[in-house]
Design brief:
alpha/beta; Rossmann fold; 10 strands; 16% strand; seven-stranded parallel β-sheet
Length: 261
């Protein structure tokens, strides 16, 4: 895992956008795995800027979102369909037919989840997956105890997740208790992964995910065994890392190396 430490949230958003742009220029039909929540908002804002000011095109890009609340329609203000359209898709030149977000109103959920996996496979798999991390260490809605080999399915949300997400709703009673989410195994099939985290409230779980044991109780910890993960974190989110100085030392070495190749 490559750990990149930046000064603040704005800086990690810009660094993540730089990586996405680099991969997109290498492969115009990139298959992107996307996340929602407050963490990737800065990244999406920077990608929109790159599209408008630098001509970065998403015409051939295909996307798959990690999850969606079960029971919310696509036009619900707190659905992830609504989130993605408002914060990214409506502001770039992507073909909406190439965007995929789990259906929160799916009737035969088991069949639907299998079909979602099949769609990812037909596109050749996820080239670059964007991830945030929950305060309990979940990625997607793969709550503590999720199988590290899990695939797309419906999950019951943890109490902490419901509390954390209640800030987006009028009251905690409105927060859905279920979500359709791609699995840990699905995420791990991605060719490359960017993990984003910002703020002191993520420091403890980031330390456990990056430096602690691999465990299903902290699903993000499985990223330690993925061959191509870039963790882009701000200073506050890395305040509990024991090897923080080492990561900075390595990052400086990488920068110097790139200047000579």
């Amino acid at each position: 895992m490559e750990v990149i430490i930046k000064k603040n949230y704005e800086a990690i958003s810009e660094e993540a956008a730089r990586v996405v742009k680099e991969r997109l220029l290498e492969k115009p039909d990139l298959v992107l795995g996307l996340a929602t929540g407050s963490t990737p908002l800065g990244l999406y804002k920077e990608l929109v800027r790159m599209h408008r000011e630098e001509g970065l095109s998403f015409k051939k890009v295909r996307t798959f979102n990690l999850d969606e609340y079960y029971g919310l329609s696509p036009d619900h203000p707190q659905s992830y369909h609504y989130f993605m359209n408002a914060n990214l898709f409506s502001q770039i030149d992507i073909d909406l037919a190439n965007t995929h977000i789990p259906d929160g109103l799916a009737k035969n959920v088991g069949k639907y989840c299998l079909e979602y996996e099949e769609k990812i496979e037909k596109c050749g798999g996820i080239d670059l997956q964007i991830l945030g991390i929950g305060r309990d260490g979940h990625i997607g809605f793969n709550e503590p105890g999720s199988s590290l080999a899990s695939r797309t399915r419906i999950k019951t949300l943890e109490e902490q997740t419901v509390k954390d997400n209640s800030r987006f709703f009028k009251s905690i009673d409105e927060v859905p208790r279920y979500a359709i989410t791609t699995g840990v195994g699905t995420v791990m099939d991605s060719k490359e992964i960017i993990l984003l985290a910002s703020g002191k409230n993520k420091a403890g779980i980031i330390a456990k995910a990056i430096e602690g044991p691999v465990t299903s109780q902290i699903t993000a910890s499985i990223l330690q065994v993925h061959p191509q993960v870039i963790a882009i974190l701000d200073e506050e989110a890395t305040s509990s890392l024991k090897r923080k100085d080492y990561y900075k030392f390595v990052e400086e070495g990488v920068k110097k190396f790139k200047k000579h190749v």
